[in-house]
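anyone else get weird line breaks when pasting these?? whatever heres mine. first is seq + tokens for prot A
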Amino acid sequence: MKQIWIPKAGGPEVLRLDQSPDPMPKNGEIRIRVEAVGVNFADIMGRMGVYPDAPAIPFVPGYEVAGTVDQVMPGVTGFQEGDKVLALTRFGGYSDVVCVPHKQAFKRFDWMNAQDGAALLVNYLTAYQMLVVMGSAKPGDKALIHGVGGGVGLAALDICRIIGAEPIGTASAHKHEFLKERGLDVVIDHRQDFGRVALDLTNGRGPQIILDPVGGQLWHKNYRLLAPAGRLICYGISSGVAGKKRSLWHLFKAAVNLRFYTPVRLMSDNKGVLGVNLAHLWEYTDEVRRWMGQIMSWYDEALFRPHIDRAFPFTEAAAAHDYIQERKNIGKVLLIP
């Protein structure tokens, strides 16, 4: 099999394509011949050596794949050889063959291609957990989505449209035209004063929900901006990453900007601060499967389609990482074995 390794911490150029023997699945697992792999910012942080959940270097990154089942082991129910699937991987996804517990895999519809399958899992599950499960978004709620042009941001935009919430987004200027065509009426340059715009749009009350993948100083500004009974949902800390390699100075600044919201303060302010990390839900597969069931149902009803910006071959994995870090992508970036 072909695999993309992180042999040492560093810039995109450290990624290495190697050959290894095909893995053998264990009881309760299926083996998948991979056709598409999702690229996520967690992979980039792992490559830089700043992702706390990553295995010790060297390791193979990757959280999501789509392909075809070619082997089924005892203890597996609901799958057979030849099934078209998408699956969550606990690292190791940058491979053209993977073995996963069968509860981490989902059958694809006949009309769902592998690229759509690989683009669904991490982005749409994260957005669903934030907006529906923890954010309790309802029709008419104003939802401020930072980084709305990225994979999770576009997924959140789609889910807002489906449930009737009213999104406001921040994004780089070159993404604005696409986002408006996608149905986002209000999009703000991420370098501008988004708080003033959000207050104007909400008659001075602020949004009910704010999705924040940046962290640092933005946490404080977002918290102050929330409407009464509003929820700040944190799902990343990209402010701790600058450039293509690890920066101890930026990590230090991110740590210094951490704040603790005590129960007393939250009660006094009538606000909530929530955290989301899909990678910490491996022991709750039944719950995640329920969420994915709803997402697949929406896909089946043609209520959304993931937007895939670019698909890079395995040989250009470094270019895929560079593309995301340069903020060029609108939506999902994939790797193709």
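and prot B, same format (seq, then tokens)
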Amino acid sequence: MILCIDVGNTTLHAGLYGEATNDAPLLLQFRKTSDSRASSDEIGVFLRAAMRENGIDPVAISLIGIASVVPDALHSLRGACQKYFGKEPFVLQAGARTGLRVRYRNPLEVGADRIANAVAATRLFPGRDLLIADFGTATTFCAVTADADYLGGVIVAGLRISLEALETRTAKLPAVEILPMHGRPCLGRSTVESMQSGAYYGQLGTVREILQRLTAENFGASERPPLCIGTGGFAAMFEREDVFDRIIPDLVLRGVLLATALNAPTAAS
């Protein structure tokens, strides 16, 4: 069994797969709040407890892969894997085999989560031009060609950041719940409704505009448009808005899984 971990700025997201294949089902996933100061013991105990509470013996873990955009968390994560699972984890970072050709001016700048998304998408949809939108703390966009060239992307403030900015930088605006607004009026009739509408439709408009521009700039000469994939915690909110061809919530974890297999093929079998 393979443990895949995605460490974001807000959440640590972990998932278990039985094998390292494109269509391997996600057997279990669980989350905790990200904390770069968490000790290896805190992380290790959490991971083992989450598995046991879901009827999975931690001893069954044969391989661990990590993608992290929080560098300070890696030391504790490595220690947790070594101490509580007896495994040296694979960390998705520069120099790892991915099957991608990264065309960023400085490939080291590309976040591990974005690389993981691209790895999974190119394996799931070979021979297709791809646009990937990942709704996390930030909303990120990646453009990948049918030949697995990672062209680059776009980064904008995510839904939660946008609302937190309004809450903390204004005198009278409150904290509000993030809600899907599909089918609801854009016009708010209260402060809370106005903020929720602005967050949802503002993000939706941003997504549509960026996907359209990325398509025109990078794939305008292609015979068919790129496949647009949504992923991340808030992607499902936009499922009914006709902006994505596919929504794959575990795309990052699946990318970690496949990258781990590419870099340790015998261990993944």
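btw re prot B: The first strand starts at residue 2 and ends at 7. The domain at 101-253 is CATH 3.30.420.40 (Nucleotidyltransferase; domain 5).
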